[in-house]
Amino acid sequence: MPAGGQDLGGRTVVVGVTGGIAAYKVLDVVAELRRANANVRVVMTKAATRFVEPLSFEALSAAPVYTDLFAGGEAGPVAHVALADKADVVLIAPATADFIARAAMGMADDFLTTFLLAVRCPVIVAPAMNSRMYEHPFVQANLQRLSALGWQVIPPDHGWLAEGKYGPGRLPAPERLVTAVRAALAGRATLSGRTILVTAGPTREYIDPVRFISNPSSGKMGYAIAKAARDRGANVVLVSGPTVLEPPPGVTVVPVVSTQQMFEAVRTHLDGVDAVFAAAAPSDFRPRQRHAQKVKKESAELDIELERTPDILAALGESKGNMVLVGFAAETENVLENARDKLVHKHLDLMVANQVGMPGAGFESDTNIVTVIDKSGKVETWPRLSKAEVAERLLDRLEEMWGVGTVRTSSS
Fold first, then answer.
1. For the chain, how many structural domains are there in total?
2. Which domain holds residue 179?
3. Residue 354 falls in the annotated catalytic set
4. 239-286 pLDDT, tens per residue?
């Protein structure tokens, strides 16, 4: 089985490439799908061939590339219908503003748009363009229309664009696009169109350049949630403190060190977020003074004055709007009472609590025993489960709140 996901042996993935500067990145998508043993067929618009030669896609897909509605080819003059019959999933990347407009209007003026009218399998669209174009009301309205038709819209990444400006519009990494294809083929793209932010791991509050205040959080719970949400088709942002874990492919990772940095990263990436899983264990206190040089043992004062760090969860709760907010609490005593108190005072929708020190649970363990409390007061204590299974159950609860299969673009 290929690394990072299930073998796709025999499944037919049709990749539609439109005329954007990011078209060259789709070569890696095709190569990765082929490594996963998928049958890949590539359809290119005329504009796309100005950026990448069809021969490159033919070499990587080991199949002819469709560019002309009237060229005949493998299936003769109705190739677009024959290909639609074979397709198990369609990925359009990059999707330009022009293509999005034509698709939203149901036009059939080239091979790709004509083919799409005959398709009855899942369709995934990955817009990539200039930030101002992407944010234009026409483009957003067209994406909303495609989403309403059941197409999965993957919001673009923020980053440096071709014109040298920073903003939303970058084609997501190939790993993220392949993950969306896998989720669609597995029939589990239940969170497509949703954006989920996850915090994970510990933070470090430095006393001097070599000493810090921290905790034993491994980040395993947060990383498991990020992976599970990604596998269900969500756009995932993972804000992670220092860990030794390998980030899940297809997830936007924002590394941080201190609680202040985590707080600022969460605020920066909050736009368009539908749910936050605050699984990190940020330090509650930091030294009031940080020494610029290592404090020598012989001259060190034995008292360190501390101050509170920002309360990330409380700040989110104060301005959460319609966002679903899930908190985590590691307690040493009065677990239920303390968890309920945090749920109410921090305006959470769900609280996941566990008692530190229980065998096979809590920090650094691969398993956990948690008590889940919702804002209605319902309490569930789950048996010892792997953190991956805890993550799946938490996402099941999230889907119950939203309704499985709800699809939106990031701007809805």
1. 2
2. 12-186
3. no
4. 999 999 988 877 889 999 999 999 999 999 999 999 999 999 999 999
